Amino acid sequence: MLMLERLLTEQRNPASRDIDARSTADVLKIINDEDHKVAPSVAREIPQIAKAVDGIVAAIEHEGRLFYIGAGTSGRLGVLDAAECPPTFNVPPDLVQGIIAGGDAALSRATEASEDDPELGKRDLLARGFTAGDVLVGIAASGRTPYVLGAVAQARNMGALTVGISCTPDSELSRAVQIPITPLPGPEVIAGSTRMRAGTATKLVLNMLSTAAMIRLGYVYGNLMVNVHPRNQKLVERALSILQSIADVGREEAESALAAAGQSVPVALVMLRLGVTKSEAQRRLKAANGHVRKAMQG
Fold this sequence. Notes:
Layout: H1 24-35, H2 38-43, H3 46-61, E1 66-70, H4 72-89, E2 96-100, H5 118-127, E3 135-139, H6 146-157, E4 161-165, H7 172-176, E5 179-181, H8 197-216, H9 233-247, H10 251-260, H11 265-274, H12 278-287, H13 292-297
Parallel strand pairs: 1-2, 1-3, 3-4, 4-5
């Protein structure tokens, strides 16, 4: 059994040893200085993150889905990233899913005891209908959470692609998955409080995984969210701005195209750029698997 104090995430940070005796401004400066080390630790993992993104895209292109699983902070971050994909990229709510030990109750109240049960991780994964065609991203800052390891073992036994995000060198999780992602931001400002630097590193990696996957799937044109669904006035304005910018048309023409397209920004964009009907724009998008740029080139 690995002793807790040997974990990188549990070690004491020399920069904050007397943080409780510092002024408020000094406390904040120490935290901020240490946070500056997070992004470089993620940058070193870009080759592994790229492999994971390509695997996720390949799975989704073949009707697979992306699942995150974790406990505590790690689980909450996975659920958060999954929840933000439908409104950002207008994808089905089950395309990206987050599973947290303890269920929905654990999102607002700590239920960390559930993280010690590997069988529960397996059961929760199967209860979501996970298949061999899906991708599982296990998240555990320590890299040793039994709940996550149990789910990863189940996914691998099924033949699915597994990815692991941990912040400890040579962790159990990194050895258990096909694609380990291991940013090492170092000991926390408050020893063991992985909601801080490790949590930030994890959030950055999750942002990269989902955003880059959606870019590769064609739900972004340039740097604009062309797959946005205009459900409220703010999103309507964003949709019109996107159409005006990319198609180089005025507001009135953009409004007319959006209405004719049934409020679908990709359909309206293809109609405007290529001068085609709604049905032709839909045909092109379907042939391109929803990839907007490819639909306009085909």
